[in-house]
Structures are given as C-alpha cells and as structure tokens.
Amino acid sequence: MKQTSILSPTRQLSEEEKSHVWQKPPSHIESEAEKRIYQEVVRNWNRGEMKISTILLEGDAGSGKTQIAKALSADFNLPYTKVTCFADMDKSDVLGSILPVLSEEDGHSDKVEYRYYPSEIVRAYENGWLLEIQEPTVIRDAAVLMALNSALEPDGSLNLPTRIAHRHPDFIAVITTNRGYNGFRPLNEAMRDRVQHAEKLDLPPKEVMMERVKAKTGYESEPVLSLLAETIMVLDETARANAIKGVAGMRSYIFWVDAVQSGASIQKSLYYKVLYKITTDPQELVILEQALASHGLTEKLEEMDHICQSQKDGENPEVMELNISENGEFSAKTDQADKNAVRLRKSEDSEGHSDTSSDENTDISSNDNGENGTPFYHELDKSDTTELQKKEFRKQLNREARQSVQGSVHEDIKLIVHRPEVTYQNREEYNRMMTTLMPVIRELIRKTNPLLEHELSAEFAKSRLYGTKFCADQVATMDFRTFARKRPPEEEPSIAVALRIDESASMSAFGRLDAAKQAAVALYEFCKGCGIPIMVYGDTADRSKLEQMSVYSYVDFESKDANEKYALMNIQARSNNRDGMALRIISDRLLNAPQKSKLIISISDGQPKAMPDYSGEKAAYDMKDTLQEFRRKGIQFLAAAIGQDKEAIRELYGAENTLDITDLKQLPARLVQVIARFM
C-alpha cells in the first residue's frame, strides 16, 4: 500500500491542515480491513455515483475502529478530526451555534455581538477532511439524525444559521459504532443506506493479535503472548454468550502483556487488567472464571506464572521445558514442586478475588453454584415489609378486587385474593430455574434497554447561552441567555405489564404448568431488568362454596416485599377457571399504574368454565365484554394459547392478539420478545 494517496492531486494543504493529518507510528500494522477500504476508495474515487466516501466500521470496543479511521487519514493524506455523539445531542451540535460575544472596540465592552461558530462536523464537511463520527447510535433526537443524513449525501448540503454549506469533494465520513452496549440502538436505516462500504470488526486471529502486541510493547515471549491471547478470546466469547456487557479486546490484551512484561504476576494482573474491565459483578466473574477453568486455561496460567516468576527470582530456568506446537499451544514440564504458583481461585482475603469461587469445572451458565458445582442458597433478602404491612396490603387487594366486580355478572361470587407465603424451597426452585433462563434474559435486556428511551423531546429549556432556538424576548435581560435548547428525553419506560396465569386443573397436563412458571420467571426478571412495572397473578374457581373465586397475587408493582418473586414457585393446577372475572380484577388493578401503555398477557389452555353455569356462550360473552371495556380504557390484551382449545381462545381475543405456542420450551423467550415489541 502507498504511504500516501492524494485523491485530488491539485489540492494543496495548508500548514494547519498538514498538522491534522495522522502520522502512522512505527508500531502500526496494516489490517486487512484497512487495505480493503483503501483499495475500494481509490478504485472508485473518480467514478461519479460509484464514489465511496461514507464508510461504516462496526465492532466491539478495542477492535481497532478508530485506529483504522486515523490510518485512512494517513493513507489519503487528509486532515483527521472526529466528533463523539451523545444521547442529548441537538442540531446545534451538528450545524454549529450563534453565541454572544462582547465587542471591545474603542475600549468599551458593553456592546453585544453575535457570532456564528461552526461545529467540527461543518469544518470537516466544508474543508474536505476525514471525519470520524463516533457512536451515532446513541443519539435520541431524530432531527439530529436527519441533519447528519443530509451531510452524508454525496452531493448534499447543510443549511447553517448564516449560510448554506456544500460538501467538499474530498470529504470522507467514517462512522464507527459499537455493538450492544448501554444506550445502543440499531443504526438509523437512512444513515445505513448512505454507507457505501461497511466492515464488521471482531477480535483478529491470534497470530495477528500477537504481532500487534509485539509491535506495541516490544515483548517477544511467544508462549506468554499465545496463552494470554487465547485467554482474551475465551473471555470475549464467554461474555457474549452470557450477555455480560463488558468486552475483552485488544486494549485489554495490550495492557495485560505490558503489565506482565514489567514483572507483574500473570494471574493477579488478569483481574485488574482484563476481568475487572469486563465486569465487577461477583456472579458474572464466577462465570468468566469457570469458563477459563473449563478450557484448561486456569492450570496453564498457573504454570506459565510459575515459569515467569522462577526466571524473575533467579531460579534455574533449565529445569523447565517448554514445548511449543504449531498452533501456539504450550505445555510445561518441571521436576520441582510448584512452590511459587499462585492459584487463580484466590481466598477471600487475598487481592483480586471474586466473592464466589470454585476449583472444579462447572457449567458456565450457572451463577448459583458453590464448591464442587453444588447449588448454594442464601437467606431470604432483608425486607422492610413487616407482617402487619403484608396483612394490610392483602386487605387492600381484596377490597379493590371486590370493587372491580361490582355491577358485573360476578358481583355475588365469593372472592378471596391470596398473597402466597415464600419458603426456602421456593427460593431453591427459583434459583435452579434461573440458572437456565438468565443468559437469554440478560441478552434480551441488553437489546431492549436502549429502545425504552424516547426518540424525541418536545420541550425546550429557555435561558441558555447557546442552543437551536433564538428567544428575542430574552434579549432585554442582558445576561446573554437568549437561546432555547431541547430538554433531555425522559428515561423511564412508559409501559406496565401484567401476566395472568390460568391455574385450572387441566394446566397440569403436557408440561403446561412448568412452561407457565418459566414464563413468569423470565418475564419478571426481564421487566425488572428494564425497569418495567410488572404484576403476576394466577386464578382458579370453585375451590369451595365459600371461595368460589381464588386470585393469587404473586407479584404486584405496588408491593414492597423484596422476596415476593419466589412466590411464583407456588403456581399450580387447582380447579376450574372464571376467566372474565380474573381479567376484570387484573385490568382494574393495572389501571392504577401511571405508565401510558398497559399490557396484559393471559396464559391459558382452554375455555372458561366455572360453577354453576359459567361456560359456553355466557362465558364467551362475558369475556368479550370485559376485553372490549378495558380496551377502551387503554389496556392491550395478548393471549398465549397452550392447550387444545386454541381456536376458542383465538375467537375470544382475536387472531392478531393470540400467540399459538406449539413448543412450550419457547414460551418464556416468546413472551419476553413480545414485550420488547410492544415498547
């Protein structure tokens, strides 16, 4: 590849522009992506509509996106600049601002003038520089994205406060964005459509990682570089698989190798150079540690640490024999005890330990395992809810439920609302269920959280020194605060969810009850992780003549009981079902939530049927009447049909509001995905 490529041979850079052209350091190694982009841009530069001037680099943190953008500045001999996007960006951050300045002519400073200051985007756009646009996916205001899209048009222009700016023919935009972090959204479709070349950047092959670290640090030990690179790759893969938000990338690898080169312990520096950059959550650290153990890396790190420490301490290195295979793997043989070895699983009073540890290989998806892979359980969470408060809350729910059915066909039905007690067995069962569900739930939370943020903010905050709106009525104050700027959008989710579970006797067949329990746990954890209010209720009918309708309040968004989620394990098949009455009580309760959107999901396996005559057309009419009444009040209904009477359920709720769950194992994930769509 040429060292420089003047895309416009007749152009002369000013001295200031020359100072902005990035200079490749001796440690820079050209990647395949850089070579490919260079060749494509040069090949198409003078081909009119085929010209490539907008490039997308998408990948994890530390994958080299900014390095490639800077390298292209050197390759094309173009000045490099960048803009880092943020959530509350407004149009002034793209187009520039008009700001008040004091005139100092004739020694006076009481005259106010207004001057336009271009943004970095405008400077690059008009002067023909290479602009890196970092993380445009975090921007919440659609108007800002529209302004950026205008700048990315091949023959586009920007409507500035003082003039119209036209795109310089040498202007190149490089969009760099991470995948799947806090605040992440899918890249705007209109912006993605304007991209002419895109690269997906992941961790490079191990050999390339090693070459880059050698160039950066000067460290030459092949066995150490190989082992540390393999460890980084395993940790990166494990973090992805378990929806752990952190990342193990090239930056972590470089600084870990640098620490080892300076004499630090391989195992101790693993924590503060790599693991703690990924996460400091004790349970997530256990998952990462178990992944290293299951791949045999724990013992390899111990052996390598012993070798390095022995050589550092002046012991005879000849007693160790290193065998390097073609793929970079190593094995160590020694004729002396590992007296200097440091275990990766540190004791709780040692430096850099995690709160929970296991020396045995265990399933990396488990986050509730102790020694030898056996489950461990904690005491129930401390709760501020006293027995008296629990009793008062139960009375409140009973009062409200009876009020909900007044004036309906269920007015004379004897009703009791229960708040099931939590036992240690409930907790054990809940934790076992969570072991298999949590990786999927975490991944869905990670993808959904950014969607909860509003795209637009309609309110303006006045009295700002700069902004997008000039307020003439503020000039008289003489404090220069004559602009208005958009307020940040609200962060809180605007949806509340209720899950209703049919606890009729027929739910005990074909694994329906287990599927309903798993769905309840998955939905609860998902909603809690996204900050969404949720209530989970079950119901049955005809337990006795004195209890013709039984409602079970397992989880309620107004409850202060920290342990109530474990009560979900009390869901069971009981007797008949009076669906219309249950939906009326739950709907009325959900209306108390302040959120704008309200969704009720009903899991049922059959038609409503209760004593003495609640069945057939009467039950169907009551169901439809209830659904229609509360839909008018703003509640949306969705039914998960898991039994033999799916057609009847579809007739009651409507085909568009019915999920046909053929594979019960898919029920938890399906319900969580549905919630994400409703947001």
Description:
The chain is of the alpha/beta class and 679 residues long. The protein folds into 4 domains: 15-201, P-loop containing nucleotide triphosphate hydrolases (Rossmann fold), CATH 3.40.50; 206-309; 416-451 and 493-676, Rossmann fold; 459-486, no CATH class. It has 20 helices and 21 strands. The strands form 6 sheets. The protein has a 7-stranded mixed β-sheet with strand order 12-18-17-16-19-20-21, with helices on both faces. Strands 2-5-8-1-9 form a 5-stranded parallel β-sheet, sandwiched between helices. Strands 13-15-14 form a 3-stranded antiparallel β-sheet, with no helix packed on it. Strand 3 and strand 4 (111-117) form a beta hairpin. The longest helix is centred in the middle third of the chain and has 25 residues, at 424-448. It is globular, with a radius of gyration of 32 Å. Residues 180-184, 315-383 and 453-458 have low confidence and may be disordered. This is VWFA domain-containing protein. Residues 1-27, 325-385 are annotated as: Disordered. Residues 496-675 form the VWFA domain.
